[in-house]
Amino acid sequence: MVNFEGNINGHVVIPGTHTAAGGTTTFNIGYPPAQASKPREPFTTVPFAADPDFVDRPDILAWVRDKCAGPGARAALVGLGGVGKSQLALQYAHSIRDASPHTFVFWVHASTRARFEEAYQDIAERLQLPGRSDPKANVLRLVSGWLRGETNGRWVMVLDNVDDVETFHPSWKRPRGEADPDAQTPLASYLPQSRNGAMLVTSRSKDAAARLVGGRNRIKEVLAMDESEGLQLLRNKLSDLPLEESAVELLQALNRIPLAITQAAAYINRRARMTVAGYLAEFQKSSKKQESLLRRDADELRRDKSASNSVVTTWQMSFEQIQHERRSAAELLSLMSFFNPQGIPESTLRRYSKGAAGLTDEEDEEEADSAFDEDLDVLQAYSLVSVTADNNACEMHALVQFCTRVWLSSFSNAEQWQHRFIALMAQELPSGEYENWAKSWYLWKQGSYTSAQQLAAKGLSIREKVLGLNNQQTLDSVEVLASVLGDQGKYDEAETLHRQALEGCKKELGERHPDTLTSASNLALVLRHQGKYAEAETLNRQALEGRKKELRERHPDTLTSMDNLAGVLQAQGKYKEAETLHRQALEGYKKELGEQHPDTLTSVSNLAQVLWCQGKYEEAETLNRQALEGRKKELGERHPNTLTSVSNLAQVLRCQGKYDEAETLSRRALEGYEKELGERHPYTLTSMDNLALVLRHQGKYGEAEMLNRQALEGRRKELGEQHPDMLTSVSNLASVLRAQGKYAEAETLHRQALEGYEKKLGERHPHTLTSVSNLALMLQDQGKYTEAETLNRQALEGREKELGERHPDTLTSVYCLLKSYFKQSS
């Protein structure tokens, strides 16, 4: 008789005897609960110390304690990655250890089979389970056996990051003849339901968690922090830095996601001069900057080494898991990332899914609805989407949408899904109202401003409601409405909207994106119309440099920036630089778009204007006639741009003394503007003033004065007292009064105009010098020769320097000064 004790092929051999009968040896082998080689003091394998910055969420922890209190209890915390599930589980684990030192507390990383096996191997070593070192031993079974043993003491296990249902409940079947069947055993079978133990699971997937804990009634969804919790976490993470008023706004931007808050705090702490307000400004600067900040590690020491410390990477793992698990659900998520995050119509999504599956209303209704419901269930299971109480709409965190779009961009699919979204909206909204943007843009370009404004406002309202305020499609609608308002002379409203669009583009696209540069250019244009030349010039230069770099020198948008910059320089009297830029732009337009393109004709008109300002009347007349003929042909007789060409040509003819033709054209322009734009539009008021100038030169003072007064009142109301165009009307009225011998009122108005020009445009601006000359003539007529001579010298000196010795205005100043000498000597 021989006694055996030990292991054979990893199995426990029960001590006993063997007999040899007919050459056969018999052993008694069994699988009793594994026992440690000697009793062990309870210990913990929790890998992290308690977090001193932890913010208590008492309702959640109370729920965990309640659910894990009973024998064999199981419970799960589910939610978005980075929402704080593991931190809550960590706090619970430490609280159990502190309250009950005789309880074993095990922490098992469960994101993959390898991590699970690694954790069980560590537990086996700590328990010193017999057989654990045998290369052929099934350590998972040894630990599972120990967990079943009710004499081994109380234990609690945290299964962290159970995100993939396949890890614990694989859908595959083991191939026949598998050499190592233990390696293919579902991990769930190694999680015994012992009366001695309790298990807490953390997971992003409700489905994976429910399979392990026995149903969704044992699941607690962890949502984003409330405002007070978020502020407390930010306060804890920022050490000694005081919280600013912008802290609440930052929390809103981060959707109060704990990991995102921790990331922000880490970034602020690493930079000595960074503040909460500074981080918020950086975060809101552009989508590119936002992505960069959200990709930075959070310096979080209490997250598993396999878990990213960045929100973008953390959530993209979920997106990829969904794509692997159910592709149609990932596609639904992709589409939803372009909606306004609140109130995404479920009916719209359902119809889209049906269409994507190639089903008609009559075909397989039940099957299509079932497939959609399954897709939505998957997204809800991962806490990426929620459904409103009435089941009519879905909601998402804006940050989740942003990270989804970043994920799509990583494999160049973002634009494709954006186009699908736009197409869907075009189908869904009544009568194609979503296409109001295109219709309003067309009407605007046709000069039908009233209709364009109505459609643009309606389209903007719809887009803002469906897409949200900062969506790129909404910003496009803002731009169109602003431009329509600007072309109607509603400059203050237009400025507000253009600034809104520019800030939105900077935030969503970055400062160098072509759409952002377009927005800057549009704002500059309306600022020029308001007489805010300095800011307009700065923006135009930025837009021009940006477009040269991002597009190319000859791109039509670059040429537009060149023309716009020239326009604002012209308004400031910087005629030479303006002419150079206008000629460059015109040459580019001709090559890129052709001579008859509306933008080319606008450039022709612009060059003609700066030549007129320099007294180069013959070339200006030729170009104005060319622009007028082209615009008649391309845009029609009544288009506002055509009427502008009529008015511009009339002014050049006036300066050449061709008063009859100038009057005819001026009346035609005024009549057209009144009909197309209304009597109060700035273009109409300018045309009124221009006709009055022609009439004054013809000696028709009564009608000229009447028109000048109408223009003055209109501009005062529409533009304000200090607008350069308003000052021009003051000066024009003063001149017609002087011509009628009404010197007292004329002098008062001339001095008012001069003071305004000096303040608004500066002493050397051509308009200011014209005003100086006009006042000198006024004083000369009244016999105030000394002051008149001083002013004439001032005007002459300025004009020689700014306009050149041969400019007609300079020659006028020479004549006026000589006349002043003659008057004083006679």
Automatic annotation (TrEMBL):
Any Pfam family hit: DUF7779
As given in the record, the signal peptide range reads: none
GO molecular function ontology, one term from the record: ADP binding
Q: Where is the DUF7779 domain?
A: 322-407
NB-ARC domain ranges (all copies)? 76-238
State the name under which the record lists this protein. Answer: TPR-like protein
Which organism is the protein's source?
Curvularia kusanoi (Cochliobolus kusanoi)
